[in-house]
Amino acid sequence: MSRATLGWLALFVAGLAFPLMAGNDYHLTVMSTAYIYAIATIGLNLITGYTGQFNLAHAGFMAVGAYTVGILTVDHQVPFWVAFALSGFVTAALGAAVGAVSLRLKGHYFSIFTLCVGYIMFLVIEKWESLTHGTVGIIGIPGPSPIGPLVFDTPRALYYLVFFFLVLGIFVMRRIVNSLMGRSFMAIRNSDALAEALGIRLMRTKLLAFVLSVFYAGLAGGLYAGFVRFLGPGVAAVEHTFDMTMYMLVGGLGTLLGPLLGSISVPWITQYLQFLQEYRFLVFGPILVLLVIFVPHGIVGSWLGWRARRASQAAEPAAAAQRTTAPLKAVPSVSTGGQRHA
């Protein structure tokens, strides 16, 4: 068993044991919320960290998934699990339409376009009262319905439900990024021209990454709706996208563990700084600035870089010793036969 597999197994065991160590239900609520945003952040990391396209409408797509569950369950009495499944596919369908237009742009033009799309989503949610209930929001969203003997009516049961989807999301994402498709995403991140020279169809591959990314956001939004059971237009605010971006930067952009680590550690740091009230950001802000300056690749990215450099330094003496002890090969002499050519 590899070291990476052992590490993921240790995190899995820690997640299972967390409710036994949590002091109260509030801690379970904080961790469950962090897991939901971790799922969305893992999706954002696919399009931003692995494909190199910074989508600023990610919170808007998460809101689409949340409102899909809210509208279907409250206004149309659709069972929760049916609405939850549709939250991912409705968001993916909208993402395919938005991506087909926005991915024709590159760099900061793409980011600015998606920023505008995210704000349009926010305005639609806020103003379309007949569909989204406007600024009043959707109240009384039913929680996840029982699955056989499994009942999700306590904070601990909801915690394990969210934890299950987080583990499933990480497992699927790990398979994606380690596949040929994931290599195609990273090739596009490194260079569009090089990826195209390798035979990768740029538009189709970028669109696939975008749709998968927002699918994760939609499912995270559906879980959020069933967990919080109230929705307002603020769910679609661009500030949430910047929060998820911060999670990626702190943990490590373009890594699988980084977004998870950032999504869990940052909310807990802010919770422990609540005694400072509105002044807590005077402490938290400089910490983030120092991390960005001195750990630019994030915690996980910097650790992976350090491990690679250490392995390279350890391999250099062995390679040098092998070169010095290798027997010299005899160089065959070439005889001209002493003949001259006119």
UniProtKB/TrEMBL annotation:
Q: Which domain of life is it from?
A: Bacteria
- Enumerate the InterPro entries for this protein: ABC_transp_permease, LivM-like
* Region of interest: Disordered: 322-342
Q: Where in the cell is it found?
A: Cell membrane
User: Which Pfam family, any one of them, does this sequence belong to?
Assistant: BPD_transp_2
* Record's compositionally biased regions (Polar residues): 333-342
Protein keywords = Cell membrane, Membrane, Transmembrane, Transmembrane helix
Q: How does it sit in the membrane?
A: Multi-pass membrane protein
**Stretches that traverse the bilayer:** 29-47, 54-74, 80-101, 108-125, 157-177, 207-227, 247-269, 281-306
Its main subcellular localisation, reduced to a broad class, is: membrane
Q: Which PANTHER family match?
A: HIGH-AFFINITY BRANCHED-CHAIN AMINO ACID TRANSPORT PROTEIN BRAE, HIGH-AFFINITY BRANCHED-CHAIN AMINO ACID TRANSPORT SYSTEM PERMEASE
Name this polypeptide is given: Branched-chain amino acid ABC transporter permease
